[in-house]
Each structure stands twice: as C-alpha cells, then as structure tokens.
Amino acid sequence: MTVQHAPGMPIMGLGTYGRRGSDGQAAIEAGIAIGYRHLDTAQDYDTEAQVGAAWQASGLGRDAFFITTKVATTNLDSGKVVPSVERSLETLCIDQADLVLIHWPAPDERIPLEVYVEQIGEVFTRGLATHIGVSNFTIAHIDTSQRILGDIPIFTNQVEVHPYLQNRKLVEHCLKVGVSITCYQPLAHGDVATDQVLAEIGEPLGAGADQVALAYLMQQGLCVIPSSARKDRMQRNFDAQKFTLSDTDMARIAQLDRGERHIDPAWGPDWD
C-alpha cells in the first residue's frame, strides 16, 4: 500500500539530482519500474527532460505520477517565475505540474520575498501547478509567505532532514501551520548506512540502517525523496515503507540529532 503524507503525494519520492543524460533517464525508468510514482526534479538539476522522457516511456498515464519541479534562484526576479515554469512544463512534457516549489529564498535576500512569492501564487492561479510550495524556507520565510499568499496554501517545505539533522523547530512549526515537510538528503549523503544504533534497531526487523532512517522520517508523516542511480539501492529505499518502528526505536533515533547539515551555501538563509 502506498502511504501518503499529504493528499495526492506519495510519501516516498525519487530524487533525480544527478540523473542526467541517457544513463540518468535509464535510472529514473528503473525507479518507475520499482514502483516510484513521485518524481522530484528542479530547473537547476537539468533533469526535467529525463523525467519527462522516463514517465512517457513507462507506458503509464500522466495521472499515475506526482511530478515536482523547482524554480531556480536565477528565475526569481519580477516577471521570470511564470515563464520559467512554462518552460519546465514543456520540458517535462506535461500541461500541469503536481507541485512547483521556490527552490531557495533569493541568495543573500537580494530580491524581496514578495516579488517571487506573489509569482509562485500566480503559477497556482494560472493552473500551471495543482499545488505550490517552497524549499529551504525558514520559519520567518514561511510565515511571511503565508501572509502574502492569503488563501493559496503552501503545500510543502522541502528541507534537509535526516537522523543527524532533525530540524525539529522548523518541522514542528511547518506542521503546526499546515505546511507539510519533504525531506531531502534523508540518508545524510549515505552516512546513516553505517550507524550502529540504526543497525541495531533494524536487525530484528530485517532492515538495514538506511531503511530504518527512512522509516523513522516517514513514520512521523514526513515525505522522503532519496536519490540513487543504482537499482538495488532504489529498491532498498522503496522497501523502507514496509517497516514499522516501535516507540522505543523512535525515541532512540531522536537522540541521534547532532545538527549535521550537508547543504549550506554561503548565500543561503540564516537557518532556524
């Protein structure tokens, strides 16, 4: 059974960063064959063409997929967001995205938040996306964006979350105000695979440490979008949906948080 953390979006998604060229398309097609239906791309990834080709090659209908893309920081200026999304849709071979996100707040806040948040609202009102959201937004960004958008809901905030960076203050605030969380880097760039605590928890379940890390996030209702080019790893990640952790297991993993952030550009926001 496919569990959903928010209406229409599978809780397990396939990250497509690095999946360029024919090899990248083949990897995405392998993920689709495994059962991934939530495909996550971005203008900056340069993988929208591969995602578009892969879903079409699957033989499945458009309505079988939940497709997310993200607006690059180079497209945040006045008048740029909507045309960039229209180009993305053409590249993805779709008429409407399921979700379009602002990938990052403007570098060093050089562009006022209102400029691009109002435009992502226009993406929604024009019907270019079923849902709109944000990525790498802080609490302050979220609260201000909700005021700007008014009745248009922010569907999700896609941020770095894994056992070593649980980002609790931001996560709890987003969920409180009705914004779901999508976790990128949910395996901490692979570091969780050798974690002894996660391995001990997984052993009686027949799960690996990496699968326990994903199960931990999903059991909290958080979406995960792990990325891999290898079919065996994609399958392991997908199979993490089968495992249920005990309250004791969850409490032990909660103690692994050490504020270890992997994605932290100098021009990025001041994190909560």
Task: Summarize this structure briefly.
With 272 residues, this protein is an alpha/beta fold.
Task: Write structural notes for this entry.
This protein is of the alpha/beta class. Helix content is 38%, strand content 16%. It has 10 helices and 10 strands. The strands form 2 sheets. Strands 3-4-5-6-7-8-9-10 form an 8-stranded parallel beta sheet, with helices on one face. Helix 6 links the parallel strand 8 (154-160) and strand 9. The mean pLDDT is 96.
Q: How far from one another are the termini? A: 35 Å
Low confidence ranges = none
Task: Kindly report the name of the CATH homologous superfamily of the domain at 9-190 and 222-229.
Answer: NADP-dependent oxidoreductase domain
**CATH architectural arrangement of the domain at 9-190 and 222-229:** Alpha-Beta Barrel
Oligomeric state, counting identical vs distinct chains:
single chain
Query: What is the succession of H and E elements?
Result: EEEHEHEHEHEHEHEHHEHH
Q: Report the total helices.
A: 10
Cα radius of gyration in angstroms: 18 Å
Major sheet description: 8 strands, parallel
Number of strands: 10
Mean pLDDT: 96
Name the overall outline.
globular
Structural class: alpha/beta
CATH class of the domain at 9-190 and 222-229: Alpha Beta
Topology-level CATH name of the domain at 9-190 and 222-229: TIM Barrel
